[in-house]
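Anyone have tokens for DNA ligase D 3'-phosphoesterase domain-containing protein? Sequence:
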Amino acid sequence: MAEPPSLKRPISPPPVKKRRKSHAITANQNTNPPPKPLQPSLAAIEAGQTKIRDHLQYFSAHFAKLSKPTNESVQRLSIPDFERLYQRNQHAKGRHFVIHQHNHPVAGVHYDLRLQFSETSTISFAIPYGIPGNANSKRQGRMGIETRVHNLWISIISTLSSYRYLRSCPRMLIDNNLIESASHATGSLLIWDTGEYTVLPRRTPKKQAETDDEVSGSELGGYNFPSGVKSDSEKLFEAFQSVRFRYIRLRFHGKRLPKNYTITLRLPTANDIVKRPAKKRHKKPGFIIKRPDSDSEYDDAPTVSTTADDEAIANASEDEVEDSTIRQSNAYTGATNTIGSVHQRHWFIMLDKVNSGFKKENGEWVRNGSGNGFEAFFVRGAEVERSVITGRLCAEVMADEGVEGFQGRKKWWPVLE
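Reply: yep, here.
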């Protein structure tokens, strides 16, 4: 009997079931871990296009990768010390400070002093020519202009609305104490110095104390601060808000600034725009800001002169586009203006020579004994000054962030006398 045709047809074998791969690693398999995901770019973080949870870790790695070798004369703060400095001030009584060198396309080169007064916020002053460093300078005073209250750092963009807002205002993410960055819109920003500050008594004691602890219980701005009761940030807060005494004596413990470097911040009565009437529309170039009568025999500079060029630097130091909420509160996103900062208010900054370790002899200020005072230093601008963290120049920060063809504002010169 012949076989039926169905038996002669080729029959495909049944499909083989795919076995799940075992996760066990044998001796012959490659044990290399999978590649780590790429870090988001600094530009993406600034533009609000990405979120990171640990900004300190991000910038520490970023700085370590971009650090430049420098000679021994350049003061540097190590990355681990930079991390510890920031971490120990992440609380309501933190006293972190930073001085940024900012090369803005409109405002030009100036220096921004930021002082922490709460867990999230810092008051900020734009100083067109940097802080004073010569006890015998012919130009003793400096002008400091209050700007917006800045954030210590925006930890996480938590809502969609804030995310969209920050994308439209990239400046909001770069105004904090950690960053070094560059862009065509905002120029370059590098850390000139950073550390912690101490608030000293308003009145200079006749007998100078040897340590900060010995003077911490003295008077400042009309308030009494018993030793161990108030932190330095609380002293700063109350002195800043004092109506009677707008006078603050600050000692900086930084890496670049010399030991015991101390300045005074004074708000002349004529500049307290909270109390004075409507602002005049026209001002003559080269107007004079008169200081109130000094309460210390060591304060010897009666006036500070500001020019129309200084005014242009001060007024252009902020972005042209700002949200109405920021203008009303005078605080950037992530910060709160609980200290009562007033935008564009002019302060008087002066080197406190006695508390910095100098004494007057034959009409000149000299070091008051061994280990006191310091050699005069001068803030020389973007072409000379290097970051205390990465050792980079302004141009190197620009190059590292891919900014080409940047046209900065001219007519800036250092104060060398």
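The chain has one domain: 41-277+284-400.
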